[in-house]
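Tip: read the tokens left to right.
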């Protein structure tokens, strides 16, 4: 393993990012019962965070390619620290909105930055190490939900968590800035890729990867956002049972990133993604056909590697000096598709009901698997 210091910083950062991403959901009671905001206003925060993701990714990609990945990473960490401090003024709705716009947008950007630098961690186990980092992010999210939910209306806990994160982020930024290299040290190795050697950006292949990622996000977020309502209103189970199924799904994703991540480099990224999406599709079809909600554990395990590994594919099809921009644009395009679908999906449920609408998520996984077929041959040529 190389760059152990950078990996250690990335590991700590991913835990903090997991906590930061969970705050919006955990402290919703604080925003409504103490700060006095309506649920409509809280809903606008969700929309603002999606918009923050898109804008931060688009501008962040240019910054990454211009100043180098490590320097940009340090700047993004400082920006995240400042955005957490801005949330301290959250009694003012406009500042709360701006704070989450920046915090969640920069969090996604840092998440993508870590994906971009993952090749520098190892020549043979980079995807395993990358997925382990995403496992740590899941620990940060689930751990904070478990610990902080009991204090979801506490102003002092809200302020304490924000200050703690802002303070912890500063030494991480300093550590990254002191590390040697500008983050472009992988350019020579990336030149082995056909796209880099020819100096061409393979727009068609990147578009396929972005569409594959978008369809996957539709399925992942669709299950996360609607499975409890599906369980209680269509299947007829209690909210506790539906919530347990959702926790199994989340646990599957976390465990899969740690366990299945150990074999992804040996199997090959593209082939592993295809097999994962096929398995997820089959199990999701069974889950929704026979309303077997506990099978969501297997769905979670199957899809666990899809997001980080798919994002890592983009830079294989762009020159080294365009890798970050290509990646952030692809993730942005996938996110837009996800947002549009969610806006339509809610109306589809109202019209057709959960029984007819939820299987559409299986279709999204199936289409994602089919598109991966067009990426696999390219991967074989390069490995």
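Filled-in amino acids:
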């Amino acid at each position: 393993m190389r760059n152990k210091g950078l990996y250690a910083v990335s590991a700590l950062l991913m835990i903090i990012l997991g906590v930061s991403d969970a705050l919006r959901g955990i402290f919703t009671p604080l925003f409504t019962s103490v700060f006095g905001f309506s649920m409509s206003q809280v809903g606008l925060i969700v929309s603002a965070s999606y918009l923050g993701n898109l804008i931060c990714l688009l501008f962040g990609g240019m910054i990454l390619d211009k100043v180098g990945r490590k320097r940009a990473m340090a700047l993004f960490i400082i920006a995240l620290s400042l955005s957490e401090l801005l949330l301290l003024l959250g009694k003012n709705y406009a500042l709360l909105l701006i704070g989450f716009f920046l915090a969640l947008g920069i969090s996604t950007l840092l998440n993508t930055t870590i994906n971009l630098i993952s090749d520098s961690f190892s020549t043979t186990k980079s995807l395993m190490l990358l997925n382990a980092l995403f496992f740590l992010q899941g620990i940060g999210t689930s751990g904070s939900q478990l610990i902080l939910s009991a204090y979801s209306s506490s102003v002092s806990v809200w302020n304490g968590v924000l200050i703690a994160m802002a303070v912890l982020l500063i030494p991480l930024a300093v550590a990254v800035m002191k590390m040697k290299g500008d983050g472009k040290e992988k350019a020579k190795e990336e030149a082995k890729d056909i796209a880099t050697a020819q100096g061409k950006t393979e727009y068609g292949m990147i578009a396929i990867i972005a569409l594959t990622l978008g369809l996957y996000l539709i399925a992942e977020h669709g299950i996360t956002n609607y499975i409890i309502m599906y369980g209680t209103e269509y299947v007829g189970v209690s909210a506790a049972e539906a919530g347990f199924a959702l926790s199994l799904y989340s646990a599957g994703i976390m465990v899969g990133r740690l366990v299945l991540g150990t074999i992804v480099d040996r199997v090959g990224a593209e082939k592993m993604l295809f097999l994962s999406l096929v398995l997820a599709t089959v199990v999701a079809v069974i889950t929704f056909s026979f309303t077997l909600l506990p099978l969501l554990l297997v769905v979670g395990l199957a899809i666990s590697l899809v997001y980080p590994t798919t994002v890592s594919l983009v830079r294989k099809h762009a020159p080294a000096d365009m890798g970050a921009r290509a990646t952030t644009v692809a993730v942005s395009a996938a996110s837009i598709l996800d947002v549009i679908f969610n806006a339509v999906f809610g109306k589809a449920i109202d019209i057709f009901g959960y029984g007819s609408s939820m299987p559409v998520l299986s279709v999204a996984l199936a289409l994602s698997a089919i598109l991966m077929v067009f990426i696999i041959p390219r991967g074989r040529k390069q490995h």
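The longest helix spans residues 203-235. DSSP finds 19 helices and no strands in the chain.
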